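To the team - histidyl-adenosine monophosphate complex, inputs and output below.
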Amino acid sequence: MSSIKAPRGVRDILPDESWKWEYVFAVTRKAASDFGYREVHLPVFEHTELFSRGVGETTDVVEKEMYTFEDRAGRSLTLRPELSASMVRSYLENRMDRQHQPAKLWSAGPMFRYERPQKGRYRQFWQIDFEAIGSQDPFVDVESVELSLEIFKRLGLSNLEVVVNSVGCPVCRPVHKKALQDFLRPRLNDLCETCQARFDRNPLRILDCKNPSCRALTDDAPGTISCLCEECSEHFEVVKKGLEMIGASFRIDNRLVRGLDYYTKTAYEVLSGDLGAQNAVCGGGRYDNLAESIGGPHTPGVGFATGVERIVLTMEQQGCSFGEAPNIEVFVISADGPSREEAVRALYDMRRAGISADIDYTGRSFKAQFKAAGGSGAVFACILGPEEVASGQVTLKDLRTGEQKSVRRAELTDFLKTRLR
Ligand code: HAM
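Output:
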């Protein structure tokens, strides 16, 4: 029988990597709280309708990428492909409109999309998501961009580019759609099949096609900004001014349309120059009609999500620091027989005194235990053989300097505490 492997597009985050994730979460958590965002834990699956109505029926995410299944009672459920729809659902369901507005919330966890796996693109991936719900103030959009940049700055990321656009609203979008279709109609046969299929249903996405010949054909296509209504235009002006005011460097990209249908007004991405094809470390924007599309009252909102795998990949590529790898402080080395029991006692004494410590459980030779101690990253090896037990002492070896010292067993934890702290 062949052994079972993980499904395509998912990966195990092993200990050599998971501590780096912890660092990313710690830095992000602190930045979130510095900006007044509070954490929410959201369910991993939701009613399918939340995403089909919230994210949009004609998006790739809803049409092709969702992990949808029926539960035993025949309800259609979907593993969340993103968090904004869930966050707005939670805001409405828990009547967060009664609290101070906007409700500034963040959440992290795995998302699921049936995409073609490649470097930086997985079928299960982690997002850290930030949403400010309940305000239409353009300065909240500015804060959203600034928070993403602040997180990347604190993580030490460089070579990033911020691209910003305004995708308009239900007032100006039909005007743009018509202008775009008029422009594309004579070129339709030369566009790729995907773009042709998008022409009637979602022509905006044609601007986002990565196919070089489609890009060339749409080079002079009318961008969203040229058709903005007065309200969207004014909103965009304040966002741009706000970003300049706080010193954020950004590029306006009139082709940036994002892959989710709920966006209105501001849309933005932060791109890494070190990631290759899947270069977005974060994406976000405003979604003033999302709450209504899932059955709630009109509730403006803006936010972004950043992909943890892509952050870690970029940090590794750029040689960023992840802080110190968490290692135990003491590795206990023992022999068989009565000294083994004394070694186990010493192990628990140390742990109870707040010293991180470990021991070998595989009955290995002294030599092999020393090797394991070296590989564990511990600062000290604590040797408890028959001789040490007989004399009421332990031998401590500083694994960094090789220096060895005998310490009275009764003084072991006090000695270690002064040496380790
Ligand atoms: P998104 O652009 O689809 O936006 O995803 C946000 C980020 O998640 C991307 O920039 C990328 O870093 C990461 N990401 C997306 N798909 C994958 C994948 N297959 N593998 C690895 N990483 C991935 C959203 O999801 C919106 N909900 C963001 C938002 C929040 N907009 C407003 N509020």
